[in-house]
């Protein structure tokens, strides 16, 4: 193993709900793990002789929680999450990639602003990390957490959230939506309920508001479309994708017709790798085939683990659910869905 990978030990396993557990971690060498609130970590899991990679968001917050933690809910028909919940225990050692992810705060301000956190189900995990970061480091912000679940019993961090409301009553307002509660007037978030809710909760300038969204794809799509229609800009909207299968979509999009060889130079951890890659082969796949270990997880343009920066030439991405237009302008690319379209390409990882 090289510095691309880290080795962790599970300190403690905590039940959050009947099917969701928090895993507190520590590094084997005792050194602090560098990560940001809202980021995720990708575990390498070996099952039936096959390596799987699964990314899970941190529910802990650096500088506030003593140990990095991830919270994992068993996914329906999810063999890997079921394996983790049934087999990982305190004292076990696990291997992971270095933390990554762009679902983070760009910085703090002393000016008052509204921050909306919108989550459904296990989508609370990175939002919980961000919530603690904002509460402790940006006291002038007013935070609205709109959290959708089926019931109180299935609400991850329900008790912890109540404690935060008591600790930060002037900064935090939580709206719980329970789809199984017949007494609630609004049980599910929709475009019809979201727009007046946001307008009602805004305290400060709309242009200063920030929105962080995490949940099922349809849920996030509805929220982002509604907020865009309301006039909020791309730089105000942040989403975190829990990996979904994009293979059918990628198959429909297809690959470039140009199969001519491209000279691709990868700058990785102080070294330089020179590859010849056909224009219709993605960069990640060719790098792995040639024995170069670069970060990745979903291979579908969703998680962002493979994000790199193209400093020379051009790269076309078949699918991108992570990078913003501004980041693309700055040269950021996803190697898993990225194809070299220039004769000479230089990529920094």
UniProtKB/TrEMBL annotation:
<dbReference type="GO" id="GO:0016491">
    <property type="term" value="F:oxidoreductase activity"/>
</dbReference>
<keyword id="KW-0001">2Fe-2S</keyword>
<dbReference type="GO" id="GO:0050660">
    <property type="term" value="F:flavin adenine dinucleotide binding"/>
</dbReference>
<dbReference type="InterPro" id="IPR008333">
    <property type="entry name" value="Cbr1-like_FAD-bd_dom"/>
</dbReference>
<dbReference type="InterPro" id="IPR001433">
    <property type="entry name" value="OxRdtase_FAD/NAD-bd"/>
</dbReference>
<dbReference type="InterPro" id="IPR006058">
    <property type="entry name" value="2Fe2S_fd_BS"/>
</dbReference>
<dbReference type="InterPro" id="IPR001041">
    <property type="entry name" value="2Fe-2S_ferredoxin-type"/>
</dbReference>
<dbReference type="InterPro" id="IPR017938">
    <property type="entry name" value="Riboflavin_synthase-like_b-brl"/>
</dbReference>
<dbReference type="InterPro" id="IPR017927">
    <property type="entry name" value="FAD-bd_FR_type"/>
</dbReference>
<dbReference type="InterPro" id="IPR001709">
    <property type="entry name" value="Flavoprot_Pyr_Nucl_cyt_Rdtase"/>
</dbReference>
<keyword id="KW-0411">Iron-sulfur</keyword>
<feature type="domain" description="FAD-binding FR-type">
    <location>
        <begin position="3"/>
        <end position="106"/>
    </location>
</feature>
<protein>
    <submittedName>
        <fullName>Ring-1,2-phenylacetyl-CoA epoxidase subunit PaaE</fullName>
    </submittedName>
</protein>
<keyword id="KW-0479">Metal-binding</keyword>
<keyword id="KW-0274">FAD</keyword>
<dbReference type="Pfam" id="PF00111">
    <property type="entry name" value="Fer2"/>
</dbReference>
<dbReference type="InterPro" id="IPR039261">
    <property type="entry name" value="FNR_nucleotide-bd"/>
</dbReference>
<keyword id="KW-0285">Flavoprotein</keyword>
<dbReference type="InterPro" id="IPR036010">
    <property type="entry name" value="2Fe-2S_ferredoxin-like_sf"/>
</dbReference>
<dbReference type="GO" id="GO:0051537">
    <property type="term" value="F:2 iron, 2 sulfur cluster binding"/>
</dbReference>
<dbReference type="InterPro" id="IPR012675">
    <property type="entry name" value="Beta-grasp_dom_sf"/>
</dbReference>
<dbReference type="InterPro" id="IPR050415">
    <property type="entry name" value="MRET"/>
</dbReference>
<dbReference type="Pfam" id="PF00970">
    <property type="entry name" value="FAD_binding_6"/>
</dbReference>
<keyword id="KW-0408">Iron</keyword>
<keyword id="KW-0560">Oxidoreductase</keyword>
<dbReference type="Pfam" id="PF00175">
    <property type="entry name" value="NAD_binding_1"/>
</dbReference>
<dbReference type="GO" id="GO:0046872">
    <property type="term" value="F:metal ion binding"/>
</dbReference>
<feature type="domain" description="2Fe-2S ferredoxin-type">
    <location>
        <begin position="262"/>
        <end position="349"/>
    </location>
</feature>
């Amino acid at each position: 193993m090289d510095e691309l990978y880290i080795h962790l030990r599970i300190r403690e396993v905590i039940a959050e709900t009947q099917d969701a557990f928090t895993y507190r971690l520590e590094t084997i060498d005792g050194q602090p793990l560098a990560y940001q609130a809202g980021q995720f970590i990708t575990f390498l899991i070996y099952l039936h002789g096959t390596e799987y990679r699964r990314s899970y968001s941190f529910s802990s917050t650096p500088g506030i929680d003593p140990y990095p933690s991830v919270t994992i809910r068993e996914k329906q028909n999810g063999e890997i999450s079921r394996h983790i919940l049934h087999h990982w225990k305190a004292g076990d050692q696990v291997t992971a990639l270095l933390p990554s992810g762009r679902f983070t705060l760009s910085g703090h301000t002393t000016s008052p602003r509204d921050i909306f956190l919108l989550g459904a189900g296990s989508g609370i995990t990175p939002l919980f990390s961000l919530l603690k970061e904002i509460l402790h480091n940006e006291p002038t912000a007013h935070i609205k957490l709109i959290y959708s679940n089926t019931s109180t019993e299935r609400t991850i961090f329900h008790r912890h959230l109540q404690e935060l409301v008591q600790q930060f009553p002037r900064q935090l307002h939580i709206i719980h939506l329970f789809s199984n509660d017949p007494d609630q007037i609004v049980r599910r978030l929709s475009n019809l309920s979201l727009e007046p809710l946001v307008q009602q909760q805004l305290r400060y300038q709309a242009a200063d508001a920030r929105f962080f969204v995490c949940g099922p794809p349809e849920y996030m799509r509805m929220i982002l479309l509604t907020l865009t229609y309301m006039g909020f800009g791309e730089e105000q909207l942040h989403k975190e994708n829990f990996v979904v299968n994009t293979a059918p979509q990628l198959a429909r999009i297809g690959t470039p017709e140009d199969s001519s060889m491209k000279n691709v130079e990868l700058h990785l951890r102080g070294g330089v790798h020179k590859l010849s890659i056909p224009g219709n082969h993605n960069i990640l796949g060719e790098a792995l085939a040639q024995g170069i270990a670069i970060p990745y997880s979903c291979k579908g343009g969703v998680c962002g683990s493979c994000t790199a920066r193209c400093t020379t030439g051009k790269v076309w991405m078949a699918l991108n659910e992570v990078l913003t237009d501004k980041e693309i302008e700055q040269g950021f690319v996803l190697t898993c869905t990225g194809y070299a379209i220039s004769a000479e390409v230089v990529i920094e990882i």
